[in-house]
Write a structure and sequence with these properties.
This protein is of the alpha/beta class. The protein has ten helices and 17 strands. The chain folds into two domains: 13-173 and 296-328 and 350-427, FAD/NAD(P)-binding domain; 184-288. It is 27% helix and 19% strand. Helix 1 (26-37) runs parallel beside helix 9 and helix 9 (389-409) crosses helix 10.
Protein backbone atom coordinates (compact mmCIF):
# COMPACT_ATOMS: atom_id res chain seq x y z
CA UNK A 1 0.00 0.00 0.00
CA UNK A 2 1.33 3.45 -0.95
CA UNK A 3 1.37 6.27 1.55
CA UNK A 4 1.96 9.98 1.11
CA UNK A 5 3.35 11.79 4.12
CA UNK A 6 2.30 15.42 4.39
CA UNK A 7 4.65 17.62 6.38
CA UNK A 8 4.52 21.17 7.62
CA UNK A 9 8.10 22.42 7.72
CA UNK A 10 9.51 25.47 9.41
CA UNK A 11 12.68 26.33 7.50
CA UNK A 12 15.02 29.02 8.89
CA UNK A 13 16.33 31.69 6.56
CA UNK A 14 20.10 31.19 6.66
CA UNK A 15 21.20 34.08 4.48
CA UNK A 16 20.46 36.53 1.66
CA UNK A 17 22.66 37.17 -1.38
CA UNK A 18 22.71 38.93 -4.72
CA UNK A 19 23.31 35.71 -6.63
CA UNK A 20 23.10 32.05 -5.62
CA UNK A 21 24.85 29.47 -7.79
CA UNK A 22 23.76 25.87 -7.39
CA UNK A 23 26.49 23.40 -8.34
CA UNK A 24 30.26 23.97 -8.29
CA UNK A 25 31.31 22.13 -11.44
CA UNK A 26 33.09 24.06 -14.21
CA UNK A 27 29.97 26.09 -15.12
CA UNK A 28 29.01 26.86 -11.51
CA UNK A 29 32.57 27.68 -10.52
CA UNK A 30 32.88 30.06 -13.46
CA UNK A 31 29.54 31.70 -12.67
CA UNK A 32 30.37 32.20 -8.99
CA UNK A 33 33.84 33.61 -9.51
CA UNK A 34 32.65 35.92 -12.31
CA UNK A 35 29.81 37.33 -10.21
CA UNK A 36 32.14 37.74 -7.24
CA UNK A 37 34.71 39.61 -9.29
CA UNK A 38 31.97 41.89 -10.59
CA UNK A 39 31.12 42.91 -7.05
CA UNK A 40 28.09 40.74 -6.33
CA UNK A 41 27.54 38.99 -3.01
CA UNK A 42 27.60 35.34 -4.06
CA UNK A 43 26.78 32.02 -2.44
CA UNK A 44 28.04 28.89 -4.18
CA UNK A 45 26.34 25.66 -3.10
CA UNK A 46 27.78 22.20 -3.80
CA UNK A 47 26.46 18.84 -2.68
CA UNK A 48 29.90 17.18 -2.82
CA UNK A 49 33.14 17.58 -0.93
CA UNK A 50 35.01 19.68 -3.50
CA UNK A 51 34.62 22.24 -6.26
CA UNK A 52 35.34 21.42 -9.89
CA UNK A 53 32.83 18.64 -10.50
CA UNK A 54 33.94 16.27 -13.23
CA UNK A 55 37.27 18.11 -13.57
CA UNK A 56 38.21 17.13 -10.01
CA UNK A 57 35.91 14.66 -8.24
CA UNK A 58 35.17 13.07 -11.59
CA UNK A 59 38.88 12.42 -12.37
CA UNK A 60 38.59 13.87 -15.87
CA UNK A 61 41.87 13.47 -17.73
CA UNK A 62 42.08 16.76 -19.63
CA UNK A 63 40.27 19.87 -20.82
CA UNK A 64 38.88 18.97 -24.24
CA UNK A 65 38.47 20.78 -27.53
CA UNK A 66 39.76 24.06 -28.87
CA UNK A 67 37.57 26.50 -26.96
CA UNK A 68 38.98 29.89 -25.97
CA UNK A 69 38.05 32.16 -23.08
CA UNK A 70 39.82 34.35 -20.51
CA UNK A 71 38.57 32.57 -17.40
CA UNK A 72 39.16 29.15 -18.94
CA UNK A 73 42.67 30.27 -19.88
CA UNK A 74 43.28 31.45 -16.30
CA UNK A 75 42.24 28.06 -14.93
CA UNK A 76 44.66 26.34 -17.31
CA UNK A 77 47.50 28.70 -16.48
CA UNK A 78 47.13 28.50 -12.71
CA UNK A 79 46.56 24.75 -12.53
CA UNK A 80 49.29 23.70 -14.98
CA UNK A 81 52.26 25.14 -13.10
CA UNK A 82 54.43 22.03 -12.59
CA UNK A 83 55.32 20.69 -9.19
CA UNK A 84 58.73 19.05 -8.56
CA UNK A 85 57.31 15.54 -9.01
CA UNK A 86 55.63 16.36 -12.32
CA UNK A 87 56.81 16.15 -15.89
CA UNK A 88 57.94 19.54 -17.13
CA UNK A 89 56.73 20.65 -20.53
CA UNK A 90 53.59 18.51 -20.54
CA UNK A 91 50.36 19.87 -22.02
CA UNK A 92 48.66 22.38 -19.79
CA UNK A 93 45.34 20.79 -20.75
CA UNK A 94 46.14 17.75 -18.59
CA UNK A 95 44.33 17.74 -15.26
CA UNK A 96 45.85 17.01 -11.88
CA UNK A 97 42.54 16.77 -9.94
CA UNK A 98 43.95 17.60 -6.52
CA UNK A 99 45.83 20.61 -7.83
CA UNK A 100 42.75 21.91 -9.64
CA UNK A 101 40.68 21.55 -6.45
CA UNK A 102 43.07 23.83 -4.58
CA UNK A 103 43.46 26.33 -7.41
CA UNK A 104 39.69 26.70 -7.72
CA UNK A 105 39.27 27.16 -3.97
CA UNK A 106 41.93 29.86 -3.98
CA UNK A 107 40.28 31.65 -6.91
CA UNK A 108 36.89 31.59 -5.19
CA UNK A 109 38.37 33.00 -1.99
CA UNK A 110 40.13 35.77 -3.91
CA UNK A 111 36.81 36.71 -5.52
CA UNK A 112 35.03 36.85 -2.16
CA UNK A 113 32.62 34.02 -2.95
CA UNK A 114 30.96 32.32 0.01
CA UNK A 115 31.16 28.56 -0.46
CA UNK A 116 29.00 25.88 1.12
CA UNK A 117 30.05 22.30 0.43
CA UNK A 118 28.07 19.22 1.53
CA UNK A 119 24.87 21.14 0.76
CA UNK A 120 22.22 19.52 -1.45
CA UNK A 121 19.88 21.96 -3.18
CA UNK A 122 16.50 20.41 -2.47
CA UNK A 123 14.04 22.96 -3.88
CA UNK A 124 13.68 26.49 -5.22
CA UNK A 125 12.07 29.32 -3.31
CA UNK A 126 9.34 30.79 -5.50
CA UNK A 127 7.33 33.95 -4.85
CA UNK A 128 4.79 35.39 -7.30
CA UNK A 129 6.07 33.04 -10.00
CA UNK A 130 9.71 34.13 -9.64
CA UNK A 131 12.56 32.04 -8.27
CA UNK A 132 14.01 34.02 -5.37
CA UNK A 133 16.32 31.53 -3.67
CA UNK A 134 16.75 27.88 -2.78
CA UNK A 135 16.30 25.42 0.06
CA UNK A 136 19.18 23.14 1.01
CA UNK A 137 19.41 19.95 3.04
CA UNK A 138 22.63 19.11 4.85
CA UNK A 139 24.08 18.03 8.18
CA UNK A 140 23.12 21.51 9.34
CA UNK A 141 19.49 20.68 8.57
CA UNK A 142 17.03 22.26 6.20
CA UNK A 143 17.89 25.89 5.40
CA UNK A 144 16.54 28.59 3.12
CA UNK A 145 18.71 31.02 1.16
CA UNK A 146 17.35 34.08 -0.65
CA UNK A 147 18.81 35.85 -3.67
CA UNK A 148 17.97 38.25 -6.47
CA UNK A 149 19.04 35.70 -9.12
CA UNK A 150 19.61 31.94 -9.01
CA UNK A 151 21.96 30.25 -11.48
CA UNK A 152 21.30 26.53 -11.88
CA UNK A 153 24.62 24.85 -12.66
CA UNK A 154 23.72 21.46 -11.19
CA UNK A 155 24.27 19.71 -14.52
CA UNK A 156 20.89 18.00 -14.38
CA UNK A 157 19.03 21.27 -13.88
CA UNK A 158 17.63 20.21 -10.51
CA UNK A 159 16.50 23.69 -9.49
CA UNK A 160 14.83 24.37 -12.84
CA UNK A 161 13.08 20.99 -12.85
CA UNK A 162 11.71 21.49 -9.35
CA UNK A 163 10.56 24.98 -10.34
CA UNK A 164 8.45 23.40 -13.07
CA UNK A 165 10.53 24.34 -16.11
CA UNK A 166 9.72 22.18 -19.16
CA UNK A 167 12.40 19.75 -20.32
CA UNK A 168 13.07 16.67 -22.41
CA UNK A 169 15.54 13.89 -21.69
CA UNK A 170 18.07 12.30 -24.00
CA UNK A 171 17.67 12.04 -27.74
CA UNK A 172 14.52 13.26 -29.37
CA UNK A 173 13.24 9.99 -30.84
CA UNK A 174 13.28 7.80 -27.73
CA UNK A 175 14.80 9.62 -24.74
CA UNK A 176 17.95 7.48 -24.89
CA UNK A 177 20.80 9.07 -22.95
CA UNK A 178 24.54 8.73 -23.32
CA UNK A 179 26.12 6.13 -21.02
CA UNK A 180 27.76 6.96 -17.70
CA UNK A 181 31.35 6.31 -16.61
CA UNK A 182 33.46 5.98 -13.48
CA UNK A 183 36.89 7.29 -14.40
CA UNK A 184 39.96 5.76 -12.74
CA UNK A 185 43.72 6.10 -12.69
CA UNK A 186 46.44 3.48 -12.94
CA UNK A 187 50.15 3.60 -12.14
CA UNK A 188 53.13 1.52 -13.20
CA UNK A 189 52.79 2.39 -16.90
CA UNK A 190 55.95 2.44 -19.01
CA UNK A 191 55.60 5.74 -20.87
CA UNK A 192 58.42 4.82 -23.23
CA UNK A 193 56.31 1.99 -24.71
CA UNK A 194 52.76 3.00 -23.81
CA UNK A 195 50.11 4.01 -26.30
CA UNK A 196 47.40 6.57 -25.58
CA UNK A 197 44.37 6.05 -27.81
CA UNK A 198 42.44 9.24 -27.13
CA UNK A 199 39.38 8.76 -29.30
CA UNK A 200 37.04 5.98 -30.33
CA UNK A 201 38.49 6.13 -33.82
CA UNK A 202 42.11 5.74 -32.70
CA UNK A 203 42.58 2.06 -33.48
CA UNK A 204 46.29 1.57 -32.87
CA UNK A 205 47.98 -1.66 -33.89
CA UNK A 206 49.30 -3.71 -30.94
CA UNK A 207 50.84 -7.22 -30.98
CA UNK A 208 47.43 -8.91 -30.70
CA UNK A 209 45.67 -6.86 -33.35
CA UNK A 210 43.96 -3.46 -33.39
CA UNK A 211 43.39 -2.10 -29.90
CA UNK A 212 39.76 -0.99 -30.29
CA UNK A 213 38.85 -4.28 -31.98
CA UNK A 214 40.46 -6.19 -29.14
CA UNK A 215 38.56 -4.10 -26.62
CA UNK A 216 35.23 -4.86 -28.25
CA UNK A 217 36.10 -8.56 -28.26
CA UNK A 218 37.55 -9.04 -24.79
CA UNK A 219 35.98 -6.43 -22.51
CA UNK A 220 32.64 -7.09 -20.78
CA UNK A 221 29.66 -5.44 -22.49
CA UNK A 222 28.69 -2.59 -22.44
CA UNK A 223 32.36 -1.70 -21.92
CA UNK A 224 34.47 -2.25 -25.02
CA UNK A 225 36.28 0.90 -26.13
CA UNK A 226 39.85 1.81 -25.18
CA UNK A 227 40.47 5.41 -24.09
CA UNK A 228 43.76 6.08 -22.29
CA UNK A 229 45.16 9.51 -21.41
CA UNK A 230 48.58 10.59 -20.13
CA UNK A 231 48.85 12.59 -16.94
CA UNK A 232 51.33 15.11 -15.58
CA UNK A 233 52.64 12.49 -13.14
CA UNK A 234 55.24 9.81 -13.96
CA UNK A 235 53.80 6.42 -14.88
CA UNK A 236 50.19 7.41 -14.19
CA UNK A 237 47.44 7.13 -16.81
CA UNK A 238 43.78 8.17 -16.65
CA UNK A 239 41.37 5.54 -17.94
CA UNK A 240 38.00 6.36 -19.50
CA UNK A 241 36.75 2.83 -20.20
CA UNK A 242 34.00 1.85 -17.77
CA UNK A 243 30.63 2.17 -19.47
CA UNK A 244 27.03 1.63 -18.43
CA UNK A 245 24.06 2.22 -20.72
CA UNK A 246 20.38 2.66 -19.93
CA UNK A 247 21.04 4.91 -16.93
CA UNK A 248 18.93 7.90 -15.94
CA UNK A 249 21.31 10.22 -14.11
CA UNK A 250 18.40 11.83 -12.25
CA UNK A 251 17.46 8.50 -10.61
CA UNK A 252 19.30 7.53 -7.43
CA UNK A 253 18.42 3.88 -8.07
CA UNK A 254 19.97 4.04 -11.53
CA UNK A 255 23.05 5.86 -10.28
CA UNK A 256 23.56 3.24 -7.58
CA UNK A 257 23.26 0.44 -10.13
CA UNK A 258 25.71 2.25 -12.41
CA UNK A 259 28.28 2.62 -9.62
CA UNK A 260 28.20 -1.13 -9.01
CA UNK A 261 28.32 -2.02 -12.69
CA UNK A 262 31.14 0.36 -13.60
CA UNK A 263 33.28 -0.57 -10.61
CA UNK A 264 32.94 -4.25 -11.46
CA UNK A 265 34.36 -3.47 -14.90
CA UNK A 266 37.59 -1.97 -13.53
CA UNK A 267 39.33 -5.27 -12.73
CA UNK A 268 38.73 -6.86 -16.16
CA UNK A 269 39.75 -3.60 -17.85
CA UNK A 270 43.11 -3.60 -16.05
CA UNK A 271 43.58 -7.29 -16.87
CA UNK A 272 42.88 -6.47 -20.51
CA UNK A 273 45.44 -3.65 -20.50
CA UNK A 274 48.08 -5.89 -18.94
CA UNK A 275 47.45 -8.60 -21.51
CA UNK A 276 47.07 -6.65 -24.74
CA UNK A 277 48.48 -3.12 -24.49
CA UNK A 278 52.24 -2.45 -24.58
CA UNK A 279 53.58 -0.53 -21.61
CA UNK A 280 50.69 -1.54 -19.36
CA UNK A 281 51.96 -5.00 -18.35
CA UNK A 282 52.71 -3.91 -14.77
CA UNK A 283 49.94 -1.34 -14.36
CA UNK A 284 47.76 -1.28 -11.25
CA UNK A 285 44.84 0.69 -9.83
CA UNK A 286 45.62 3.72 -7.66
CA UNK A 287 42.36 5.66 -7.55
CA UNK A 288 38.77 5.92 -8.75
CA UNK A 289 36.53 8.93 -9.23
CA UNK A 290 34.24 9.85 -6.36
CA UNK A 291 31.75 11.40 -8.80
CA UNK A 292 29.97 9.40 -11.49
CA UNK A 293 30.49 10.83 -14.97
CA UNK A 294 26.97 11.57 -16.19
CA UNK A 295 27.00 12.95 -19.72
CA UNK A 296 23.35 13.63 -20.44
CA UNK A 297 20.02 13.97 -18.66
CA UNK A 298 17.60 16.89 -18.97
CA UNK A 299 17.49 19.26 -21.93
CA UNK A 300 15.44 22.27 -20.87
CA UNK A 301 13.15 24.06 -23.25
CA UNK A 302 14.53 27.56 -23.42
CA UNK A 303 13.63 30.69 -25.33
CA UNK A 304 15.96 29.31 -28.01
CA UNK A 305 17.10 25.72 -28.62
CA UNK A 306 20.64 25.27 -29.94
CA UNK A 307 20.85 22.80 -32.83
CA UNK A 308 23.58 20.74 -34.42
CA UNK A 309 23.31 22.98 -37.48
CA UNK A 310 24.16 26.01 -35.33
CA UNK A 311 27.40 24.30 -34.32
CA UNK A 312 28.35 23.11 -37.81
CA UNK A 313 27.65 26.60 -39.21
CA UNK A 314 29.77 28.22 -36.47
CA UNK A 315 26.83 30.50 -35.82
CA UNK A 316 27.19 33.88 -34.14
CA UNK A 317 24.00 34.90 -32.33
CA UNK A 318 23.05 38.52 -31.74
CA UNK A 319 22.53 37.71 -28.04
CA UNK A 320 25.77 35.76 -27.54
CA UNK A 321 27.03 35.35 -23.98
CA UNK A 322 29.77 32.77 -24.71
CA UNK A 323 32.06 32.83 -27.72
CA UNK A 324 34.91 30.90 -29.36
CA UNK A 325 33.31 27.54 -28.47
CA UNK A 326 34.71 24.54 -30.30
CA UNK A 327 34.15 20.80 -30.05
CA UNK A 328 32.84 17.92 -32.14
CA UNK A 329 29.68 15.81 -31.70
CA UNK A 330 30.99 13.61 -28.90
CA UNK A 331 28.03 11.26 -28.57
CA UNK A 332 28.99 8.11 -26.68
CA UNK A 333 27.06 5.10 -27.97
CA UNK A 334 23.64 5.17 -26.33
CA UNK A 335 23.39 1.39 -26.69
CA UNK A 336 26.94 0.14 -26.10
CA UNK A 337 30.62 1.00 -26.40
CA UNK A 338 32.33 3.46 -28.70
CA UNK A 339 31.04 6.38 -30.74
CA UNK A 340 27.31 6.59 -31.40
CA UNK A 341 26.12 6.44 -35.01
CA UNK A 342 24.96 10.06 -34.70
CA UNK A 343 28.33 11.25 -33.36
CA UNK A 344 31.20 12.70 -35.35
CA UNK A 345 34.84 12.99 -34.29
CA UNK A 346 37.40 12.37 -37.02
CA UNK A 347 34.89 13.36 -39.70
CA UNK A 348 33.44 16.34 -37.83
CA UNK A 349 33.58 19.51 -39.89
CA UNK A 350 32.47 23.00 -38.85
CA UNK A 351 32.74 26.37 -40.54
CA UNK A 352 34.16 27.96 -37.42
CA UNK A 353 33.80 28.33 -33.70
CA UNK A 354 30.32 28.98 -32.39
CA UNK A 355 28.59 31.10 -29.78
CA UNK A 356 25.98 30.39 -27.11
CA UNK A 357 22.85 32.59 -27.17
CA UNK A 358 21.54 34.10 -23.95
CA UNK A 359 18.05 32.86 -24.82
CA UNK A 360 19.21 29.25 -24.40
CA UNK A 361 19.88 29.97 -20.71
CA UNK A 362 16.32 31.12 -20.05
CA UNK A 363 13.96 28.23 -19.20
CA UNK A 364 10.50 28.85 -20.59
CA UNK A 365 7.88 29.92 -18.08
CA UNK A 366 10.39 30.57 -15.27
CA UNK A 367 11.57 33.93 -13.99
CA UNK A 368 14.55 34.71 -11.76
CA UNK A 369 16.52 31.64 -12.89
CA UNK A 370 19.33 31.11 -15.40
CA UNK A 371 20.70 27.77 -16.60
CA UNK A 372 24.45 27.27 -16.93
CA UNK A 373 26.29 24.19 -18.19
CA UNK A 374 25.11 21.11 -20.02
CA UNK A 375 21.41 21.52 -19.15
CA UNK A 376 20.88 24.66 -21.27
CA UNK A 377 18.41 24.46 -24.14
CA UNK A 378 19.80 22.35 -26.96
CA UNK A 379 19.12 19.25 -29.00
CA UNK A 380 20.68 15.88 -28.19
CA UNK A 381 23.28 16.41 -30.92
CA UNK A 382 24.12 20.01 -30.04
CA UNK A 383 24.38 19.07 -26.36
CA UNK A 384 27.10 16.54 -27.16
CA UNK A 385 29.31 19.46 -28.18
CA UNK A 386 28.50 22.20 -25.65
CA UNK A 387 28.44 19.81 -22.67
CA UNK A 388 32.24 19.70 -22.43
CA UNK A 389 33.96 21.52 -19.58
CA UNK A 390 35.72 24.43 -21.38
CA UNK A 391 32.46 25.47 -23.03
CA UNK A 392 30.63 25.13 -19.72
CA UNK A 393 33.17 27.53 -18.18
CA UNK A 394 32.37 30.09 -20.87
CA UNK A 395 28.62 29.60 -20.37
CA UNK A 396 28.99 30.07 -16.62
CA UNK A 397 30.91 33.31 -17.12
CA UNK A 398 28.24 34.60 -19.50
CA UNK A 399 25.36 33.61 -17.22
CA UNK A 400 26.88 35.39 -14.23
CA UNK A 401 27.60 38.53 -16.22
CA UNK A 402 23.97 38.69 -17.34
CA UNK A 403 22.81 38.08 -13.77
CA UNK A 404 24.97 40.93 -12.47
CA UNK A 405 23.62 43.36 -15.09
CA UNK A 406 20.05 42.36 -14.23
CA UNK A 407 20.78 42.77 -10.52
CA UNK A 408 22.39 46.19 -10.94
CA UNK A 409 19.40 47.58 -12.81
CA UNK A 410 16.79 45.55 -10.91
CA UNK A 411 15.67 44.26 -14.29
CA UNK A 412 13.96 40.91 -15.00
CA UNK A 413 16.36 38.48 -16.64
CA UNK A 414 14.39 38.46 -19.90
CA UNK A 415 14.61 42.25 -20.13
CA UNK A 416 18.33 42.57 -19.49
CA UNK A 417 20.25 44.83 -21.88
CA UNK A 418 22.25 42.24 -23.81
CA UNK A 419 24.50 44.92 -25.27
CA UNK A 420 25.58 45.91 -21.77
CA UNK A 421 26.16 42.24 -20.90
CA UNK A 422 28.34 41.78 -23.97
CA UNK A 423 30.32 44.95 -23.27
CA UNK A 424 30.98 43.75 -19.72
CA UNK A 425 32.13 40.38 -21.08
CA UNK A 426 34.48 42.12 -23.50
CA UNK A 427 35.91 44.11 -20.58
CA UNK A 428 36.64 40.75 -18.91
CA UNK A 429 38.63 39.68 -21.96
CA UNK A 430 35.98 37.72 -23.86
CA UNK A 431 36.34 37.98 -27.63
CA UNK A 432 33.23 39.52 -29.20
CA UNK A 433 31.00 37.10 -31.05
Amino acid sequence: MNYTITETLSTPLAGSYDIIVAGAGPAGFAAAITAGRLGARVLLLEQGHAVGGIATSGFMSHWTGDTEGPLYDEILERSSQPEPEEFYGTSRHLINPDKVKLVMLEMLQEAGVELRLYSFVAAPLIEDGTVCGVITESKSGREAWRSKVVIDATGDGDVAARAGAPFKVGREQDGGMQPVTVMFRIAGVDYERAIFPGSFETNTAVPGGLVQDLGHTHLPHPAGHVLLYPSSLPGIVTVNMTNQTGIDGTSTADLTAAELACRRQIKPIIEFLRSFVPGYEKSYLIGTASLMGVRETRHFVGDYTITGEDIVEGRTFDDWIATRCSFDFDIHNVEGAGLDKDGAQRYFRAKGKYTIPYRALLPQGIEGLLLAGRSISGTHKAHSSFRVMPICVNIGQGAATAAVVAMRHETPLREVNIGEVQQLLIEQGVTAG
